[in-house]
Amino acid sequence: MAEPEPKPIRRSVSQLTSYASCGESYRLQKVAKAPQRPAAWFAMGRAAHKAIEDYENCGRVMTAEEAVEVFNVSYDSEIATDFAKWPDWDAWLTGGRKGGEQDVADRKVIGGYQVEQYIDYALEHAEEWRVIASEVGFEIEIGGVLTTGYIDQVRQHADGSIEVADPKGGSTIPGSAVQLAVYAKAVEQYMGVRPSKACFLKLARPATARGKAKPLLELHHDLSLWSDELLERMFRDFDKAERLGLYLPNASDDCHRTCSVAEYCTIPGKGFPERAAQFSTIRRRPDVATMKEAA
């Protein structure tokens, strides 16, 4: 009996990078569906993107105060939703030794500051580039793998060149530009032009008792290094390995502070054995497992 064609599974860059970072964390989150502890930095990032998106989509007629209010409303809503699921502040992931409630309050200040500083930055460079599309959804094939996502920003420079950009509000920036390379490929498919420029924007951070304010930084990447062949191989390998249920853990000393499913980790000394046992055997998506059995 011929093996049935595999059912297409939508992939994304975030899934690919999450899988590559730690296969066990990816398995627990995406396949086993283990409960994920909340963190204020997730809400801060989404709310900042929302405010920046609204600012650019309205033609920049929004004031900084109005944009910050968009951030505040979105942030408060995200936090309220997470708190309804996890009403114990001690269970929240934080950026240090502070408690969850204090971290939530601190990140509201940080996010509002980032939105203000982004607007100053955008106006300062108004003669150099403008955002022609923001948070644009796409669905393309890469190496036969259905790949979806949202392009944070498509910019057009004064010389007519196109650039993809992604604002990042966290303290760390991706070490790989694969996300920007996929955005560029999507722009080429939809607009007929391959962006020659790409950058991550490391958003500004206000001064604290520990140090001075940090300015917004542009971190540029050469997308010519990211060939179609490389992207296709990466997505094909990821898709094949995930369908086979292959997940390699990559535990670090920082797991318990940054990984939302660390308590269910099967690596000795990282999780809690009695909790990890609940999800340790779940290594296949239900539709993929059923397909294999039918074959």
TrEMBL record:
GO biological process, one term: DNA repair
Molecular function per GO: helicase activity
Pfam families assigned: PDDEXK_1
InterPro entries reported for this sequence: PDDEXK-like_dom_sf, PDDEXK_AddAB-type
UniProt domain PD-(D/E)XK endonuclease-like: residue ranges: 12-265
Keywords, in A-Z order: ATP-binding, DNA damage, DNA repair, Helicase, Hydrolase, Nucleotide-binding
Key word Phosphoprotein present: no
Name under which the protein is recorded: PD-(D/E)XK endonuclease-like domain-containing protein
Species for this entry: Pseudarthrobacter oxydans (Arthrobacter oxydans)
